[in-house]
Amino acid sequence: MTNKTILRTEKLLRILADGKFHSGESIAQQLAVSRTAVWKLIQKISDWQLEVYSVRGKGYRIPGGLDLLDKSALMAQLQLAGASFEQVHVLTSLDSTADFVANQWKQSPGVATVCIAEHQSAGRGRKGRRWVSPFAANLYFSIGVALPLGLSALGGVSLAVGMSLAQTLNRFADDQIKIKWPNDLLVAHKKLAGILVEASGDSTDSSFLNIGVGINWQMQDKQAETIEQPWTNLKTLVGKDVSRGDILAQLLINIDQTLSQYQQGGFKHFSQDWAQLSALYQQPVTIYRTHDKVDGIEIGIEDNGALKLQTANGVEVFHSGEVSLRKRAL
Ligand code: BTN
Asked: Ligand 1: which residues within 6 Å by Cβ?
């Protein structure tokens, strides 16, 4: 999209955000374009899994309206908390916030960057899966930071970020959120959020982390038809006065703090909270590896983020990567 089209689309979304009918003519006037151009913009936003009603004689309407993210409110909250991000991008639609941050880093290496999007056309999940990203329904963001730690010291960083997310969300959601090692946030065994951490750098001194987070907020069943596992939304768990924007700000502030704590003390600092946060602590589980599987009871976490299982052969330790964990029926 050209810059002009992006600006017009954003203006259109702000007009329709109130959930009321707006005639094609009045929208055309406000955007200073033809009614055909309005119709084309409506087609564009409908491609973002956004439902737009179009009724002859009445115009266009988004049922339920939109609660759009507000960049200036977010910046004020980040500034007040002294968060250390140098660049914050709040975008309407892009392919993937993870790709945006990676590209940004090619242009300005080392700049602590946050990218938040209302819609992703090619959101990426773990193991090559797609991350379904309907417009303004959920939260999608990526954080790019440089750490003065080599890749070998990053074993627990994505777990530390996951724990920080769960603890932050639990303040709004009455401690209902748990983690399934290594990176899924669950409520009653249904997926609420996922984390995708991509790291690059050398093995001893410095690394770049691209931390991507997707959190379901008010996704509708019809938007999630391609999701193959049970999932749930955050909005139903939090108080009516809590907005998506407030939660986003708190998450960013706490991840920023988590990363500086991790820099100072590694994962050790976080491992004590595992028992309380883990969805499968002290429960029978199976670890699936490429060619085999191991049954055991989850008994905790190592200081490098590896998972500890009591198995028939004693205590065994598993590193994330190509393994996956599942609850086992006894
Ligand atoms: C998972 O599979 O559980 C991880 C999902 C991570 C999704 C987020 S949404 C924001 C960021 N951009 C992406 O393309 N992916 C991550």
From this structure: 96-98, 120, 123-126, 129, 131, 140-142, 183-184, 194-196, 212-214
